[in-house]
Amino acid sequence: MDGTNHSVVSEFVFMGLSNSWEIQFILFVFSSMLYVASVMGNALIILTVNLDSHLHSPMYFLLANLSFIDLGGSSIASPKMIYDLFRKRKVITFDGCIAQIFFIHVIGGVEMVLLIAMAFDRYVAICKPLHYLTIMSPRMCIFFLVSAWMIGLIHSVVQLAFVVNLPFCGSNVLDSFYCDLPQVIKLACTDTYRLEFMVMANSGFISVGSFFILIISYIIILLTVQKHSSAGLSKALSTLSAHITVVVLFFGPLIFFYTWPSSSTHLDKFLAIFDGVLTPFLNPIIYTFRNQEMQVAMRRVLRQLVSYRTIS
Ligand SMILES: *[C@@H]1O[C@H](CO)[C@@H](O)[C@H](O)[C@H]1NC(C)=O
């Protein structure tokens, strides 16, 4: 690196989602509603689990941590996307762009490991119920959380290491509404073919790897459930079906994204909205939908919140 004409690009320009005023308006209404709803839903789960002592169990603590991640994940790109919808020039600074890439990959990595921890928790609860409390001890939970954040951070730092020193000097237009790493790399004025491959391989490896671990654990759980008596079976299956739905919703778009990288950018944008806006909104609904315990606790917490406000 000779230091001359290095990083002349100081900001990136998003092409955004659409030029049609009507589509932008519909996107604005839906994304804002989904964003507000997912912030409230996930915040309610975190509050409920932490305030209600009936829910102080590994399963619910992991769920609250997933909600925390969803809260962060939905706030990386969508508020800016919503704000940008009606702006003519949708710009982001170079540092802002790097920050988006960093947080997207941290959150993505943490979410994958958390989903694996949640699957392991269900495996122990269903297949080794007598040892549940000794295996899923507070120490085990902390171990899972620390590993999730370490893996997320390492994954993200490795991805960023590929880009921070790239020379940008030509075009700065991204056909997207957020800083999508492969697209940012394509803008560098150097030969990026190998770099694109490394970045795709890194993300592809972590997502396909986690997806297979999850699928295998669900198969083991289902086989075990099938062999044993049907007592508690329907409860196990309803919790498990919620997990499987979330996993398919989260990984479906990701894996599609990384296995058909040259598909249209329209599809890529749609999938990105799906993972950035829709999944964080759906997670709380899916986990509380058929969970009586959670619904009762949520009502209790909501009542408490309302009565605090009327007293004060
Ligand atoms: C995450 O889990 C830990 C324990 O496993 C818990 O103490 C913490 O409150 C959880 N985080 C959130 C945001 O609920």
UniProtKB/TrEMBL annotation:
GO terms for molecular function: G protein-coupled receptor activity; olfactory receptor activity. The keyword Membrane applies. The chain crosses the membrane at residues 23-47, 59-78, 98-120, 141-164, 204-225, 237-258, 270-289. It is found in: Cell membrane; Membrane. Residues 41-287 form the G-protein coupled receptors family 1 profile domain. InterPro entries: GPCR_Rhodpsn, GPCR_Rhodpsn_7TM, Olfact_rcpt, Olfactory_Receptors. Coiled coil: none annotated. GO terms for cellular component: plasma membrane. It is a multi-pass membrane protein. CDD domains: 7tmA_OR4-like (cd15226). Its main location: membrane. Pfam families: 7tm_4. Keywords: Cell membrane, Disulfide bond, G-protein coupled receptor, Membrane, Olfaction, Receptor, Sensory transduction, Transducer, Transmembrane, Transmembrane helix. SUPFAM superfamilies: Family A G protein-coupled receptor-like (SSF81321). Belongs to the G-protein coupled receptor 1 family. This is Olfactory receptor. It comes from Loxodonta africana. The lineage of its organism: Eukaryota, Metazoa, Chordata, Craniata, Vertebrata. The gene is LOC100670016.
